[in-house]
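Bug report (template v2)

What were you trying to do?
Predict the complex of my protein with adenosine-5'-diphosphate.

What happened?
Run completed; filing so the output is reviewed.

Input:
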Amino acid sequence: MSASNSIVWEKILRKGAEANLYEGYWFGKKVIFKHRIKKDYRENILDSIIRAKRTINEGRALIKVKEEGINVPQVYELDTENALIIMKYIEGQKLKDLMPKLANSEKIPLFYNVGKQIATLHINGHIHGDITTSNIIITEEKQVFLIDFGLHEYSDSIEDKSVDLHLFKRVLISTHGKDFKPCFNAFLEGYQSEYKLLENDDSKLIIKNISAIERRGRYVKRDEKEFG
Ligand SMILES: Nc1ncnc2c1ncn2[C@@H]1O[C@H](COP(=O)(O)OP(=O)(O)O)[C@@H](O)[C@H]1O
Ligand SMILES: [Mg+2]
């Protein structure tokens, strides 16, 4: 088999704001091609630099996080020149699509496990930046995989970790409102269970700070009303 037909772009999965996602094959392995696309409003050279930077940022984060034992797709190729990541295709369903098919009793252990994965991420100094139920894939064996590290950052600050959790809370309220309470509580329990194993358990501070962020959000809204 020649190298050229060992890489097969089979079909488009999604046209995103920033990247197009294709599924296909890479030397016999089922893969995802995440290809950051050119934005016409950006000048050519600047555009290539931005796409290369974001590709490196996401690819490196995936590689680092995987080394630390977190379930993320393995990166097979990181091609900055073409703004392309070739990664393992995770067989499963997005948590968002799975939710309506699950019994309540199945949701709780799943969210507990999501909480454990996010805690491990935070303990190792990573902020995901976009924790949503579309960026979590659940396999047939109910394993939790995190994807989409396009907004990943390194940080050890309580505030950044709270912001990560706050975003997830808002997603749950807006997308899965009727399940929000039990699912978010299970998520927080799983999150805390990982922190409890450490000498310095910051999880209480991180979780408490979510309310502070929410209060600030409300003040901003009120100020906007008063002065806007
Ligand atoms: N490694 C993967 N395995 C299986 N499906 C994936 C994988 N990566 C992405 N996808 C699918 O493509 C969609 C978009 O990918 P994502 O990285 O989240 O890009 P976007 O920035 O457009 O949200 C995901 O919601 C998921 O359905
Ligand atoms: Mg996504």
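What did the reviewer find?
The first strand starts at residue 7 and ends at 15. The mean pLDDT is 94.
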